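Budget justification, computational time. The allocation requested in the original proposal was used primarily to generate structure tokens for proteins on the priority list. As evidence of use, we reproduce two of the resulting records. The first is shown immediately below.
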Amino acid sequence: MGVKNDAWIRRMALNKKMIEPFVDHKVREGVVSYGLSSYGYDFRLGNRFLVPCGGTGDPKNPGAAEYREVEKLSEIPPNSHVIGTSLEYFRIPENVITITQGKSTYARIGVMVNITPFEPGWEGQATISIVNVSSMPVRIYPGEGIAQILFFEGDEPPVHKYRGRYQATRDITLPDIQ
């Protein structure tokens, strides 16, 4: 199992719609970079967010927390988090798994990004937890880079492919334990 390069990512994005919309080069000028890189793809932050505003965070009872929906959020208060979504829609092949890391541009100002692996056969927009661990407000930029995804292709498809509750998501998705 090896990490896939830019030629493979481009081919899969163009021929199999693995990433939509797809940017086949790195965009850097005046933005937090996004697009195709040598061994990954830097995807963009969408423009809809859920901001916690009360209750208790409980993965077994998502209704215990209260959120307000915000469009065009540009700042995260100190020591807090928001939930967003990727601008891109992903279709992961059945013999591929991904690992995603937040961009160093954000890490350097105290922003941690968490995105779980995309399982073989999963598709949808990524739900993104964006955490400001610093003591100051931080700016984020919807429509610009938020994280880099790496693609790992297995030697053969797994027996167990993703058929879970987060399949084909097109919005921010809160925990769903059934």
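The second record produced under the same allocation is shown here.
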Amino acid sequence: MAYIDPIYDRTMADIIQKTFKGRFNITDWERIVNNTSFARELVFSLRGVPIPELITMSTPTRTDKPTAADINDLVQNIITVQTAAQVAAANAYTLKVDYEDGPDKRGPDYQIVNAWEKVIDLIVKYHEMVKVVRRPICGVGAAGAGMTRQWMFRTKRIVLGRVPICGFAVCGSGLLRQNMFRR
């Protein structure tokens, strides 16, 4: 499963002019379902956050339309991933799961569908960025008089840049009693 570029820039002009973005069709449905599954797997693999299984979605055909229950399941899957991902930009969007069947009931419009795809895109982009950024490998931080007696200060070598030492900070009299200072 690969991530498919979302479409979240639909406008009223697209609907009036009947462009490919102005109609919600099977391709859009499959893209949203696929991208939601991709986002779930990405969040799980990078963060290790247990995410509940997504509701299994059936692909609609040209002859049948998704029901309100199908749309609610689709949105519930997005909300499940959104809640587990905890991406601030994605949490700014409030998605609703209250669609009902009937001719007098209102369904999702283009702005709501844009929000669905934008939430998924924000989650994926954030986690793709986190995957690329490597965190520095940290050691044990030391401070005090014992630091000048460490090996790295006894040799005559040129240090081109200071690399921050972070991790477990130690200070006080316990610092001098550690094995690394008994050499």
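A brief technical remark on that second record: The helical segments are 12-17, 26-47, 68-85, 88-91, 110-132, 151-154.
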